[in-house]
Write a structure and sequence with these properties.
190 residues; elongated; disordered N terminus; single chain; five-stranded mixed sheet; three-stranded mixed sheet; Zincin-like; alpha/beta
């Protein structure tokens, strides 16, 4: 028997209405409760955002809360730390997408010993090390550093050919500015 998009649920807290809606292309399960008066809570179940809201909330208010929680979940996912294996997979993807699949690193790992540089490459061995300090930064910044190090597997220096390779990643300049700001903040603590 097919499930309807609205389920009637009864529990110790009284009757609740559960309804599946779409907010910005994402499915959201909204559970309305007459006993809930002010608070809105959210969690994620099998990849679907589940909101528990007061019954009186309008659709516009529900959408607003859903967007806020979706943004929070995206930020958390962005801050999730990549493993060394995930770094290697991402390096190969970036090589394919931006560098004609030419650089093929033999290993890509996080390094706690990288304290003055964001990354380093040993081109003769094909190894790349990224500073563990990058783990808390946005993934697009990590990607820019990976592309920089991958480009060193093709071109060892920082000349015009290298700069042209690095510029193939669309957020290179933005990532460079981000990292300059971080470096400045770390070197000038208040």
């Amino acid at each position: 028997m097919p499930r309807s998009s609205t389920d009637r649920r009864r529990g110790s807290a009284g009757p609740q209405d559960a309804q599946r809606i779409m907010v910005d292309g994402d499915e959201v399960l909204v559970i309305r409760s007459p006993r809930r008066t002010r608070t809105v809570t959210a969690d994620q179940v099998d990849g679907t955002l589940r909101l528990r809201v007061p019954s009186r909330l309008s659709r516009a208010q529900v959408d607003e809360h859903a967007r806020a929680f979706q943004q929070k979940l995206r930020r958390r996912a962005e801050q999730r730390r990549r493993t060394d294996a995930e770094l290697m997979r991402r390096a190969l993807e970036l090589s394919r997408e931006h560098l004609d699949d030419i650089p093929r690193p033999t290993s890509v790992v996080w390094s706690d010993r990288q304290t003055t540089r964001w990354g380093s490459t040993t081109s003769t061995e094909g190894t790349i090390r990224l500073s563990s300090r990058l783990q808390k930064m946005p993934l697009w910044v990590q990607d820019a550093v990976l592309v920089h190090e991958l480009a060193h597997l093709i071109e060892p220096g920082h000349g015009p050919r290298f700069q042209a390779l690095v510029a193939r990643y669309p957020r290179t300049r933005e990532a460079d500015a981000f990292l300059e700001g971080v470096s400045f903040a770390w070197s000038h603590p208040q």
